[in-house]
Each structure stands twice: as C-alpha cells, then as structure tokens.
Amino acid sequence: MEQKKRVLALGFFDGVHRGHGALMRKVIERANVIGAVPSAFTFDPHPQSVIFDKPVCLLTSPEDRADLMRRYYHIKDVIVTPFTPERMKQPWDAFVRETLVQDLHAVHLVAGHDYHFGYKGEGNPTRLKSLCNELGIGIDIIEKVEFDGITISSTYIRTLVAQGEIERANEFLGHPYTISDTVSHGKKLGSTLGFPTVNLKLKQNVLPPALGVYATRVWLENGESHIAVTNVGKRPTVDDGQALTVEGFILDFSGDLYGQKVRMEFYHFIRPEQKFPSLEALRDEIMRNAEQTREFFASVK
Question: Which of 81, 97, 115, 167 is close enough to 111 for a disulfide, judged by CB 3.0 to 4.6 Å?
C-alpha cells in the first residue's frame, strides 16, 4: 500500500499563535502544490519539562493545540509524539532521517527561524536546510513574525494570560484563548443561586488565566455557541479558597450539559475575583457581570 506523503510543520506550537500560523499557511500552500497531506509534528510533554525535570505551564493542552491547528489552519494530521528521555538523546540528523522522512514520509518540512531540535538542541535551521537538500526534500524556514512591534512568542502570550490581559493575548494569538473539557458536576451552587453553570477543569500543566471574571463564549457539541460569565478562581465566598475552578454561567440557556465536551473561549476580563459578604451579594454581582458581558459582546458584533 502506498504511504501518504506529508508536508510537515515542525514545532511545539503552544497556543497556536500567529507566528505558528505563518508556518501552517506555508504547509497548506506546499501541500496543495505537491499533492501531500498538510500535517504538523509536535511533542507532549514540553521538551523542557523532560530536559530540566520541571513542569512547563502551557497555554494549551495537546488536544486543544491539535483542535486549533485543524479549525484555524486546516491542518489535516496533527502528530503528537511523546517526548521521552530516549527521544531527548536522539541525534538531530537521525530525527530528520528516521522519524520525519522514514517513519512519517515527509517530502517537505516547514520550521521557524529559531527551531532547535535533537540531542542538546544541535539541530538548527541551517543544518536542517543542508540535510533536506542532501535528502532531496523541500524545506521552508519562516522568519520571525511580529505584531505591534513585538516578536510573537508563546512565552510572551503566557505572561499576558497570567496577568489577565486576555484581549491583548488574543491579538497575539490571532484567536480567542481557549480551553476545553468535559463538563463535570460541581457543588450545584450556581443552580441554588439561579445560575446554572458549566464546571471545567484545566488540563495538567495548562496555565490558568489570572483569577477573576471573564466574558466568554461556550461552544457545545452540536455546534451551538452561547455567551457566558466565567469565574476562574477559588470561590472565596463559598469555598475554602484552595481548589481552582473554571465555572461558566451560560446566559439565556437551559439544559443539562453534564458529560458533554465543551469549548470555552475567553474574550474580556471583567474584574478580579473577590470575596462577598453573602450569597445575595454574590448573586447581585453575577447579575451585574452578566449585563457587562452582554454589553461587551453587543459592542464587538
């Protein structure tokens, strides 16, 4: 059976930001000409977490990375490979020859200007270009991408998200900051207050946005979307203030979403999380935040 040829984007692609998008648009362009499958190759976990034996907080889970690549850039195959101590020791040229060309049938590679790979990061764009020429496969190296005079990077966007500057982060991402999860049962406090909510959990090592209340949009499995007021925090008014929760009150919605996978997009930071003197005061504030959310989305139509 003939193996499918691939044009491969190379990188970790945390957040799938505008800079990554430049690689993926080139992948689509080359794949259309060659008649190959537009693909991306990435690792899980982050290589630095294995190299330095310390978790790296990320913008996106592997599942969300793959979903963003498919939805926004039409990448067909997203290959997520475990980054292991064995992989860490693989020489850079063996990675290209054996993993990318032999195993994945790459006929064209696309990488960023700062792409380093292989044992001790000895692979770089110059070496990659030389080896691709030797192997007779295509190669594109994409120069840095800037926005507002700043080089776009996952590190910079993580800082924005952690500070609650979600609208600025979205400008650099080129799409809303997004998390997805299967809706779990919370403590039913929202229903008690008259606000049915969706409770999501952040995946392991995914960076939480700054604690506070956000205007968000929730996408359901059936393709519907609804605006929501979402609290990211430790619910100091009603809990012990320890466990982090992501709790979204979907406006003008009724129905049971438990067990359904939803995608939540963050658009606007409304206020920091705070402790209220009573449940009634909390409920009044949620009502006010709901109106602020409606006004925000009405203003951006």
Answer: 115
